[in-house]
Amino acid sequence: MSEGVITKRDIRKLKLEELKEFFVSQGEKPFRAQQVYEWLWMKSAKSIDQMTNISLETRTMLKNHFVINHIKVDNMQRSADGTIKNAVTLHDGMIVESVLIPTEKRITACVSSQVGCSLACKFCATARLKRQRNLSPDEIYDQVVAIKEQAEVFFGRPLTNIVFMGMGEPLLNYANVTAAIEKITAQKGLNMASRRITVSTVGVAKMIKKMADDQVKFNLAVSLHSAINKTRSSIMPINDTNSLEELGEALIYWYQKTKNKVTYEYVVWKGINDTQEDAEALLKFCKLVPSKVNLIEYNPIDDGEFQQATDSTLTMYMDLLEKNGITTRIRKSRGKDIDAACGQLANKT
Fold first, then answer.
1. Which of 32, 62, 152, 265 is deepest in the core (most CB within 10 A)?
2. How far is CA 91 from CA 73, 88, 223, in A?
3. Closest CA to 109 of 172, 70, 169, 152
4. 293/302 Cα distance (integer angstroms)
């Protein structure tokens, strides 16, 4: 009889205490676990062989038991505006995309949290891909590390910000997203500040309340696009089960618990949400909790159903919001020429 193939466990699935227990079970000193842990999360080792201050014998023993299922950046595209899009292959062959967005003052990593998406927003290319699975904390962490390295190589500057605005709905992979953020912000991890991380959701009300209860330190952005239920439901099916009233109540709860402003991401489309009534509904919603608005330039996804509103419509929105004390900015999309802009991530590569 042939023996079954033994699948080695990814060493990054072990907590520090479990790693210590493993070393003790092998007759090794527990402090070795701390060394390995630093290699994994501070130095972002891609293989056990990179752990050079650990003896060859110990490294061989580790390789007999474990692997590091590191992501691979299989295809990197560079935009005329400097944006870099990565096609990232996961250990099981599935693919997600991540984006490096450079501006004068910052370099932002836009990372994915799921393979595909289950939420079917009509204006988003990712929504046309079936959700295959959630990403693990280390797969999310690896995307950040890859972009951190690209920032240093191509721009000679550090990574400054992280946004969970890539493929998938982060709050439907909440445990893994928060575990990844823990590793990214830990002193014995990448040591990035929580205030430089933004998690963007389409508005899963009960999970926003959970974030508030968990007293998370990162920022919250909501992909809103309409403050009128009928309009929002027509473009974002999530609104049928998480109405604007429920979302508003969750955001009030969030603010009471965290005292953190909410950012609304809002695209204005021709013939969909481009009237004075739409703008006034948004203003009213903005007054529920301290907030700011990003009016986002739309990026077409082939079929022409959604078209960017006129500049005069954007100005109308901007004037109304600013006149009423809501900080508003028009966010120009970057990386459109390589399908790397908001809503365009669809694994075309």
1. 62
2. 11, 10, 30
3. 152
4. 27
Q: Report the C-alpha dihedral over residues 222, 291, 198, 225, rounded to 10 degrees.
A: 30
Beta strand segments in 175-290, E = 197-201, 219-223, 262-267
Q: How many residues belong to the chain?
A: 349
Three-class DSSP category at 317: helix
Amino acid at position 211, single letter: M
Tokens of 140: 């999310």
pLDDT tens digits, one per residue of 52-98: 999 999 999 999 999 999 999 989 999 888 999 999 999 999 999 99
Count of other CB atoms within 10 angstroms of residue 232:
24
d(CA 244, CA 235): 13
Q: What is the pLDDT of residue 130?
A: 72
Closest CA to 272 of 302, 328, 228: 228
Residue-wise pLDDT tens digits, 3-53:
445 689 999 999 999 999 999 999 999 999 999 999 999 999 999 999 999
State how far the Cα of 136 lies from the Cα of 154, in Å rounded to an integer: 27
Give the model's pLDDT for residue 1.
Answer: 41
The pair of three-digit structure tokens given for residue 196, joined into one six-digit string: 């430089």
Catalytic residues: 97, 342
> In this structure, is the dihedral angle defined by the CA atoms of residues 316, 317, 323 and 324, taken in order, positive or negative?
positive
User: Do 8 and 65 touch, CB atoms closer than 8 A?
Assistant: yes
CA distances from 74 to 112, 149, 293, 340 (A): 16, 15, 35, 16
Decide: helix, strand or coil at residue 257.
helix
DSSP 194: G
CA distance 67 to 102: 33
Query: In sequence order, which residues have a C-beta less than 8 Å from that of residue 8 and are 6 or more positions away?
Result: 65, 66, 67
Residue-wise pLDDT for 98-156, tens only, equals 999 999 999 999 999 999 887 778 888 766 777 789 999 999 999 999 999 999 999 99
Name the DSSP class of 135: P
Closest CA to 125 of 162, 166, 87: 166
Torsion of CA 274, 276, 282, 283, to 10 degrees: 150
Q: From residue 196, give the alpha-carbon distance in Å to each of 13, 153, 161, 282.
A: 26, 21, 5, 26
